[in-house]
Amino acid sequence: MAYEFKLPDIGEGVVEGEIVRWLVTTGDTVDEDQPMVEVMTDKATVEIPSPVNGTVTKTVGGEGDVIAVGETLVVIDLGEQGSSDIPEQKHTQGAVGPAGDSGKAGAPAKKAAAGGGVLATPAVRNVARKRGIDLSKVTGSGPGGRITEDDLDQFEKTDAIAAAVGQAEPEASIERIPYRGLRRKIGDHLSLSKRSAVHYTYVEEVEVTNLVELRDSLRARGYDHLTYLPFVLKAVVTGLKKFPLVNSTLDEEKEEILLKKVYHLGIATATDQGLLVPVVRDVDKKSLLELSSDIERLVTEARKGRSKLEDLKGSTFTVTSLGRMGGLVATPVINYPEVAILGVHRIEKRPVVREGAVVIRDMMNLSLSADHRVVDGSVAAEFIHCLMGVLESPGLLLLSGEE
Which of 260, 286, 350, 362 is most exposed, with minimal Cβ within 10 Å? Predict the structure, then answer.
């Protein structure tokens, strides 16, 4: 007996998932709860297990294909099992994503119509014929993958760019890498941020000599894994409490600014697959050591591609840092729908003037990108100077818990 397993609802607001990697193939025997496929949704990769015992007779879609919730993902031959043993599947189709979602419901569909056809209206087909465009090569962004005139325009632009590149460089010297998966989702989200938020960046230099000495003394006492980031997060919470606009979102539809009363800080993390933002929750209620443990766990899981969906959602403010490679200054893109993001740059010894004399101090730059619709430049400046005060005299944060 054949059992059609459909993509289940794997998270609130999720309407589709992108196939990352098949773990089984046609002819394989699977056991109940055995992982069959890795599916990515909302930046998290999850393993979908088999709900039954049987033999795989068909898998639907390849790597990079997008499958909607409720669509058949794999067909399994149950053998002699009775129909009463087949689990019932419940799906949420056409669900609307949560506030701040990057709009997966409207993401370009990767599949053509059933039977290998192309979804397009007669008018669009006529335009394509006049322009000499092969519709089978065009990715549709309309409902169900339907091709629109905008898709034709985009295809011609892409084709023109490819032609220009081909004239400049021999094709043999070009390696083409698929723009899909996490890389495409990151691009979609950042594009949404740049289209929506009115970005500007404020930069300041801060002396962190006392912070360096404090961190070094703690490491000498056995706290080897304590980095500077927990201190930065605690300083950020101090600033967010004094300037709540920086810890908010803008509801454009209702014309309201939503001030967040929680402090869940995203940590921008570079991984082999791209940039992920795991979330450290309730930073205001945790000690430096608790934050250090949370950060280490979240970053390790992100870099191994094992982040849980709940660990990548719900941030109210984001911090991005490359540690020793943090550079002098940057203009980070806001993690929409947040209204600000803090760039933390490398600590290095620099000559500075103190009381009329040139001395060497540990210095660091901070870059705050903010949405000018919500956060004025004066607020950004005051926020950064609040952080500077905490980082210049970090002793009060020493192993403190809830503030």
Answer: 350
Task: Report residue 373: phi and psi, to 5°.
Answer: -65, -25
Instruction: Beginning with the edge strand found earlier in the chain, give each strand of the sheet holding 29-30 in spatial order.
Output: 2-6, 72-77, 54-59, 29-30
The most confident of the ranges 20-29, 41-50, 360-369 is 360-369
| Residue type for position 387 | L
Q: Can you say whether the dihedral through the CA atoms of 225, 227, 233, 234 is positive or negative?
A: positive
Q: How far is CA 291 from the centre of its chain?
A: 21
Cα 142–chain centre separation: 24
Residues 325-337 have pLDDT tens digits of 778 889 999 999 9
Residue pair 29/108 in contact (Cβ under 8 Å)? The answer is no
Helix-helix angle 149-168:122-131, to 10 degrees: 20
Catalytic site positions: 372, 376
| Torsion angle of C-alpha atoms 393, 398, 402, 403, degrees rounded to 10 | -20
- Give the model confidence (pLDDT) of 370-384 as tens digits: 999 999 999 999 999
CA-only gyration radius of the chain, Å: 25
Helices (H) and strands (E) in the chain, counts: 7, 18
pLDDT digits (tens, 9 = 90+) for 80-100: 765 555 666 654 433 333 333
Give me the DSSP letters along 212-271: HHHHHHHHHTT-TT--SHHHHHHHHHHHHHH-GGGGEEEETTTTEEEE-SS--EEEEEEE
Query: φ and ψ at 91, to 5 degrees?
Result: -130, 155
Question: For residues 193 and 185, what is the distance between their CA atoms, to the nearest angstrom?
Answer: 12
Under DSSP, the state recorded for 151 is: H
How far is the C-alpha of 403 from the C-alpha of 398, rounded, in Å? 12
